[in-house]
Write a structure and sequence with these properties.
Blueprint lengths: L2 H17 L10 H8 L2 H12 L14 H17 L2 E24 L2 E6 L14 E7 L5 H9 L8 E5 L7 H10 L4 E5 L23 H4 L2 E3 L2 H12 L5 E23 L4 E11 L7 H21 L5 E8 L15 H10 L3 H4 E7 L9 E5 L4 H10 L8 E5 L6 H6 L4 E5 L4 H5 L13 H19 L9 H8 L4 H8 L4 H23 L5 H22 L1 E2 L5 E2 L3 H18 L3 H11 L11 H9 L33 H12 L6 H42 L2
Length: 705
């Protein structure tokens, strides 16, 4: 090839490069700019700093403690450095439980072992010298096991009870109260491999909120399954095992806890808020649950400012205390910081916050991104899953908002939104709430992806011309839970309440679909009125329909009463025919928390029921009720019927061959009548709320022209 020819070819190629138009670059959206600024190294630095704060060598940063203040102060300093406006602390009233240390010393056959231990929020300390006594293994620690031991001549009086905790059957406060009721000095709790749902990682020691009555629970500690098996081997050899359990905690009532907050002001709708939240209190070091959440919230705030993104709505970045535990002598002892914030500190958000993005434990490789969401946001979330599948290498999961994270108390107050996490599966059974939740368990690439998903959700909401509320899922969800056949069987087919509910639901359904059709024709001039009515419809829907079952799941306000009334009726029929086994099964498995009756003595069971009764909450720590109901009061609670006496009476009579249950059946029938009366009231309330929601949607449609 001649040089001149080669040069000609080169010139032609270069010319073609210049003359052929380049393909158009994909348009960048604001979410891309923010995502590009998300800094995994920054998140690591935040987590490294916060996990170094603890009240003991193994960590713990609980509400109202110096560690709570130190953590919150660090977060506010970061908010200020990022450039958030009005960054600061928000004081919330909490009770303090400050863990300083715990251990168990065991002596047998002239040898001594000392095991590291922990405990749970609200559990009172032991004396400085500890509690010393012979250790007796009591199985799962329910009344059933104690009755069996006592029948064999084994007493727990003055001893230490070693319990194998099965969280599917009872909570730790139940086994601790039962041990004290039987005369034990204290309780040692482990989750052995045969029943343990938690703490199954190697040498894991666990913590949780105790939902504990401080008097009836007494002191209890938690130890690893390995150390518990060591004790069981010693007991199995026939030797006497002596133990001394020590729990060192500081406790105080009604002290200051510390939430944090900072803002990026909106340019177009500054009085509408998109909220970002994570909790900063923790058991142990809690790198994933929930220091990763704090790092995620701060990283998004930093990325927004560094990207130059100008939000239309005000972005609120916040962390809360007391998510794990924050109040003594109440069943509802978690979610305290978030409850106080939305109910007391910022009640205006109940109408003005357009969405909450609550980041929970994230960054555990292998776990899907799980999102809890209210019904009105579910269709929008489904669309986002489709757009952002690349961020979820292990997939997505969606579930109803529920009461084990902070979204619930916001939803119950009228704020729609999401809890985003990536720490399911193996994390929950091995590392969660244990000393193993350390920074080395975080996959920072995956944490960054989870945080990016949260940020992109927020940008989509912020940039939506019409807010992405959709009532179609609520229509279908509620329709499936309005059982008109059961209503007729309980109220009578001619009861006007049934017709009222049908009419109200039909109106709501028609309004929901009219609203969906109107969203596409809203103009700028009509937008404020349209969205104002839609936002109020969401608020009314969430506050009306976010109820709690007796097992803390999200249900509609009438559903627990319906279940109670149906199965009380079945129990009455079976018992009247002398069918004791099936009659008691209806009560035990389906009515309120009667599951606990054969598993707890009368006094602990009654105190457990009283803790759910708002009329018995006095503002003080006392027997016979809760100090406060807190977020439980948002849940349209059904009565926690105390049927311990008739249940046990039926069982004892049947064992003695006496099948005259007339007295017990009368109690059950009266309880059923009370349940039906309240059931009717709840249905009337649902009808009224449906009309109110429909009215707002109809007004939105009318405003769209």
């Amino acid at each position: 090839m001649k040089p001149s020819f080669v040069l000609s070819v080169v010139l032609l190629v270069l010319a073609s490069v210049v003359l052929v138009p380049l393909p158009a670059a994909a348009p960048r959206v604001p979410g891309d700019e923010i995502a590009g600024k998300l800094d995994a190294d920054y998140m690591r630095a935040v987590i490294e700093h916060i996990t170094g704060i603890g009240s003991s060598p193994i960590g713990f940063r609980t509400a109202g403690t110096p560690e709570d203040l130190a953590t919150a102060t660090y977060i506010v300093d970061q908010m200020k450095a990022i450039g958030l406006k009005d960054a600061g602390l928000e004081i919330v009233p909490v009770d303090m439980w400050r863990f300083k240390g715990a251990n168990l010393t065991v002596t047998a056959d002239g040898k001594t072992w000392t095991f590291q231990a922990a405990s749970q929020g609200g559990v009172p300390p032991t004396p400085v010298a500890g509690l010393t006594g012979e250790i007796v293994y009591v199985g799962e620690g329910t009344a059933i096991e104690y009755d069996s031991l006592e029948a064999d001549g084994v007493s727990i009086e003055g001893k230490l009870a070693l319990v194998n905790w099965d969280s599917d059957d009872v909570w730790t406060n139940h086994v601790a109260m039962e041990a004290i009721a039987r005369g034990a000095k204290g309780t040692i709790i482990a989750a052995l491999p045969d029943v343990g749902d938690y703490y199954q990682g190697p040498n894991a020691i666990g913590s949780f909120d105790s939902v504990c009555d401080p008097t009836l629970c007494g002191s209890f500690i938690t130890i690893s399954k390995e150390d518990a098996l060591t004790i069981l081997r010693l007991l199995g050899s026939g030797t006497t095992v002596e133990g001394t359990m020590k729990l060192d905690v500081e406790m105080a009532y009604d002290v200051d806890g510390y939430n944090t907050i900072g803002y990026i002001r909106g340019t177009k709708y500054p009085d509408e808020y998109i909220l970002f939240n994570g909790h900063h209190d923790a058991w142990f070091q809690s790198a994933i649950d929930c220091t990763s959440c704090v790092a995620g919230v701060l990283a998004i705030a930093k990325a927004v400012n560094e990207s130059g993104y100008q939000p239309e709505r005000t972005l609120v970045f916040m962390t809360s205390t007391g998510e794990e535990w924050g109040s003594e002598d109440t069943y509802y002892d978690w979610l305290v910081g978030s409850y106080r914030r939305i109910i007391e500190t910022h009640p205006d958000w109940q109408s003005k916050a357009v969405a909450l993005l609550n980041i929970e434990g994230s960054g555990f490789a292998g776990a899907p991104i799980e999102v809890n969401v209210n019904q009105e946001m579910r269709p929008f979330l489904s669309k986002m899953f489709g757009r952002m599948h690349r961020l979820a290498p292990w997939g997505f999961q969606a579930a109803e908002a529920y009461s084990w994270d902070e979204l619930w108390t916001y939803v119950a107050a009228g704020v729609p939104g999401f809890t985003i996490s990536s720490s399911g599966g193996a994390y929950g059974s091995t590392i969660y709430h244990s000393n193993l939740d350390t920074i080395d368990k975080i996959d920072f690439g995956y944490l960054r992806q989870t945080v990016e998903f949260s940020a992109r959700l927020a940008v989509e909401i912020d940039r939506s011309f019409v807010l992405p509320y959709d009532f179609s899922r609520r229509v279908g969800h509620l329709q499936d839970r309005l059982d008109y056949g059961t209503m007729s069987s309980l109220l009578g087919s001619g009861d006007p309440t049934i017709g009222d509910v049908k009419d109200a639901f039909a109106r709501f359904k028609a309004a929901a679909f009219a609203y969906a059709n109107a969203k596409g024709r809203v103009s700028g001039a009509e937008l404020a009125a349209f969205q104002g009515h839609a936002r109020e419809a969401v608020r009314r829907s969430l506050t009306a329909f976010t109820g709690l079952s007796d097992w803390d799941y999200t249900i509609y306000p009438h559903e627990q009463l319906e279940l109670d009334a149906v199965h009380l009726g079945m129990a009455v029929k079976d018992l009247a025919r002398g069918e004791v086994k099936s009659g008691l099964r209806h009560l035990e498995w389906w009515v309120a928390e009667s599951w606990y009756i054969p598993r707890m003595s009368y006094t602990p069971f009654t105190e457990e029921m009283d803790h759910h009764d708002a009329t018995k909450a006095s503002g003080t720590v006392h027997l016979g009720g809760a100090k406060a109901m807190l977020w439980g009061g948002q849940g349209h609670l059904a009565p926690y019927w105390n049927l311990w006496m008739p249940f046990m009476s039926i069982r004892e009579k049947a064992a003695a061959g006496d099948y005259d249950f007339a007295e017990e059946i009368a109690v059950l029938a009266d309880t059923r009548a009370a349940a039906i009366d309240l059931y009717r009231e709840r249905l009337d309330g649902i009808a009224s709320d449906l009309h109110g929601i429909a009215e707002e949607l109809e007004a939105a449609v009318a405003s769209a022209g």
